[in-house]
Amino acid sequence: SFAKNQIMALAEYGIYLDGAEFRPNDIITQLDFFVLLSKTMGYYSSSPITNDSAKEEIDDLYNYLIREGVITKEEKKPDSTVRREDAVKYIINAMKYGEVAKLKGIFNCTFSDKDNITPELVGYVTIAQGFKIVRGDNGKFNPPAELSRADAAIMIYNYLQR
Question: Model confidence over 8-25: pLDDT tens digits?
């Protein structure tokens, strides 16, 4: 995988998904994305959280993320996929820059496809671009694309590098 180095570096620090393989080309579910992200935030669970985990364990993770302001209760959809622009929003919220990202008219996003970014997420994407959490591909961010596990690992790795 093009993200092998980042995936291995994250795993060295305990940031991984349960299972024998990472499957980098698979589209990441919201739950799996939050399992990775929560490990960067110091969240502790007594057992690995997967789609097969008890409802209470999954609810505990989501309640933590809601308390920390990463997501809202209405956004909880463990089995859904994660779009690139939403992943950035969650990371920026975890960094506690969400309120700044919501400010209107102060961001200069330089991605060539910036008009495809959901208007209320432009600040999040621009902040992530500024922190080099996302770098784009040939000048494009591709905001509505579903996030692969490899792309998620790269974003989280870059977030930890800031």
Answer: 999 999 999 988 889 999
| Both structure tokens of 139 | 């000048």
Q: What is the pLDDT of residues 121-130, one digit of tens each?
A: 999 999 999 9
- Whether residue 92 contacts residue 101, with contact meaning beta carbons closer than 8 Å, is answered with yes
Q: Does residue 64 contact residue 43 with C-beta atoms inside 8 Å?
A: yes
- The Cα 118–Cα 111 span in angstroms is 13
Q: How far apart are the first and last CA of the chain?
A: 23
pTM of the model: 0.94
Q: 73-78: which pairs have CB atoms within 8 A and are 24 or more residues apart? A: 76/30, 77/30, 78/29, 78/30, 78/31, 78/51
